[in-house]
């Protein structure tokens, strides 16, 4: 896929951002954040130092709903777009108490493994200190696109939309985050026990700022 084709695909996916009326799926209660979208955009930044403090479950669920939750119950569509609505991306949360899969339909976390895989989610030393490392995994059999190259590009594009939602939520809630591609994707896939058709696209640290 050349540069022009890439921007054609990106434009087509972005066009799907229009929101229509409809019932909303079950989701965590609204937060108390007072920041406007414009202020969150001003405050959006990457951070790599985290306080040794776990994120409350309710806050993490709000973050995950903002990232990739169901916002239209009648259609099952999400807070971030995906090409052809394939919804090929799954979001995992690696915490000290195990690995969890975000169930968007139930707006809940499902424990997959008891092991602490945070250090395995990246090559950087700080990843093990973040209370949560989100891991974005794409099912390449479900991804839109014809060739493997196209599928990977589109899965990356869809993952980027989700990661940006996380950035904006963190900016609004005073959290620290950084998205990362510096990881052993194949090694992490195996550690997570994922099938071969699934591919780790990237990871993202989330936590409270270090004092």
Explain this structure to me?
The chain has 211 residues and is α+β, with helices and mostly antiparallel strands. It has a single domain (3-207), classed as NADH Oxidase, CATH 3.40.109. The chain is built from five helices and eight strands; from the N terminus they run H-H-H-E-E-E-E-E-E-H-E-H-E. It has helices at 3-14, 37-43, 57-68, 148-173, 185-192; strands spanning 70-72, 77-78, 89-95, 98-103, 108-113, 132-139, 176-180, 198-207. A six-stranded antiparallel beta sheet has the order 5-4-3-6-8-7, sandwiched between helices. Strand 4 and strand 5 form a beta hairpin. Helix 3 crosses helix 4 (148-173). The termini are far apart. Mean pLDDT is 88; it is low at 1-26.
Q: What is the topological layout?
A:
Blueprint: H1 3-14, H2 37-43, H3 57-68, E1 70-72, E2 77-78, E3 89-95, E4 98-103, E5 108-113, E6 132-139, H4 148-173, E7 176-180, H5 185-192, E8 198-207
Antiparallel strand pairs: 1-2, 3-4, 3-6, 4-5, 6-8, 7-8
Structural descriptors:
six-stranded antiparallel beta sheet; 31% helix; two-stranded antiparallel ribbon; alpha+beta; disordered N terminus; NADH Oxidase; single chain; 8 strands; 211 residues; 5 helices; globular
> What is the CATH domain class?
Alpha Beta
Oligomer: single chain
Mean pLDDT: 88
Terminal residue distance:
45 Å
What's the number of helices?
5
CATH architecture: 3-Layer(aba) Sandwich
Which regions contain 5 or more consecutive residues with pLDDT less than 50?
Answer: 1-26
Corresponding CATH superfamily:
NADH Oxidase
The number of distinct structural domains comes to 1
Order of helices and strands: HHHEEEEEEHEHE
Main sheet overview:
6 strands, antiparallel
Shape, principal axes of CA atoms: globular
Largest beta sheet: strand ordering: 5-4-3-6-8-7
Helix content: 25-40%
In percent terms, what proportion of residues is strand? 15-25%
The helix/strand class is: alpha+beta
Rg over C-alpha atoms, rounded to the nearest angstrom = 17 Å
CATH fold category name:
NADH Oxidase
